Amino acid sequence: MSDPAPMADDSSTPGPNSGHPTTFSLRTSAADLGQRLDAYLATQLGGVSRSRIRRAIDQGLVLLDGQQCKPSFRLEGEHQIAGELPAAAEGPQPQAIDLSVLYEDEHLAVIDKPAGMVVHPAKGHWEGTLASALVHRFGQLSTTGGAARPGIVHRLDRDTSGAIVVAKTDEIHAALAGQFHDRTVEKEYLAIVAGRLDRDRDRVSQPIGPHPSSREKMALRADHPDSRAAETFYEVRERFPGFALVAAHPKTGRTHQIRLHLAHVGAPVLCDRLYGGRARITVGELRKITQRKRLAAELPDDALLLERQALHARQLSVTHPVTGKRLTVTAPLPADMRALLSVLRQTADAG
How many degrees, rounded to 5, is the angle at CA 182 between CA 112 and CA 114? Predict the structure, then answer.
């Protein structure tokens, strides 16, 4: 049997949730065979998130039998593990950032997150986050996600706009998280995609796992032990020469799921720098792709139309944990995507 709790190197070592580094020493046994190293440590170091553990392993602060290793290493029986966890991140500092609140009561809120805003503090993004804005706006929020993620039940990519639900108490957080886990949350995204979809609607079922060479990306991988099933239903709402407006309904919630699945069917989200091949589009480029020389005639070729992925979380539907009623909240399409659609809709008339 493995040790029931981590053994500290000395009795003065602070606990895992303190604001100080945590050192530990553990010995595994045959009963732990096959477990991922990061998952094993998360079980043993109660209250420490796997992301914090992974960072420590990646930084070489965790040694397995005296050697550095990867978070995904599968335990082979008896090992000696020793390491140090960097100090836990402090909570985000409150910042007076304007928020568009789509719904609020004493239990939860739904926010219309703007494109370009990071949800919670991370390396390179310590200020201007949604978390900082939430702390300033609401004060009391759930702590279930840890100090760096007050109220955060789920997340949206930095350049994805739209509806995100926030919990004000740990009880509400647990109830909402359970709905995401059980896949009873209904989500609709709108995406402007590049390319031509040969079907008006379809279901994409492709597992998603870590990218083999880029830590920034995910990949469709059926052969990786950490891949997880992912399913997205999509339907075309409008078609344009070389583009389309698509509604996507993800059944699962994997990282980059919609972006990967739409790219897989040959219609990547427009201006998706990771999976779409471009990070921005100008009027001139749009004229060339659509072969409409007079498109948006009032604008010069170098006029910028979009410089973030054209993906918006339009609608979110949950069961309210207190009232038991279905709560459906809609986030209006942001100005940049509306402007782009306005230009695309001219393609029927522009020669």
Answer: 10
